[in-house]
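Final report, Chapter 2: Outcomes

The project's central promise was a pipeline that accepts a single protein chain and returns its three-dimensional structure in a standardized token representation, suitable for archiving and comparison. That pipeline is now operational. To close this chapter, we reproduce one record exactly as it appears in the project archive, with the input sequence first and the structure output second.
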Amino acid sequence: MRLIRLPLGWMGVGLALLLPGCVERRFNIVTDPPGAMVLVNRQEIGASPITMPSILSEYYGDREFYLIKDGYEPLLVRQPIPPPWYGYPVLDFVAEHLLPWTILDERTFTFTMQPARIVTADELLQNGTAARSRGAGLGMPAPPPTSTPPVAPPVTDPRLPPPPGTPSDLPPPTPLPNFSGIR
């Protein structure tokens, strides 16, 4: 019996092909001040600092971050997330399936929120007066129509039979039984 002897290098290549590669993506969101509610593409993910769930960080591309915190102006940011060199077609297949190690792509996005501006009573009164004067220049809205134009009756040819479902086609109504004596 003859044994097949494989060089160790070929055995290493065979084992490497059996081990799946992987790209792990972690996108961290940090806000100043911390504790802001974070929405990614209109989905609430929690308070900052937070790591985006893997389902939202599976692909590269633009993300829309909306940050909300009491006492601060809401912040809407469209953040581009470009792919790294191994995220382009063909290279991504090699990185995801053929490399025998895990590639970690960790990125941190830091956003600074501005304190909310307090509107004084005078500013509020000025804004209301300006809005009232703008509204007065618009004029009165047009009144809704009060009546509908008359509709002409359909023209029928007396020589043709009436269409089905007209009252002359329907059988006379059946009288209902009298159940007044039943108790």
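Archive annotation: The longest strand covers residues 22-32.
This record, like all others produced under the grant, will remain available to the consortium after the project formally closes.
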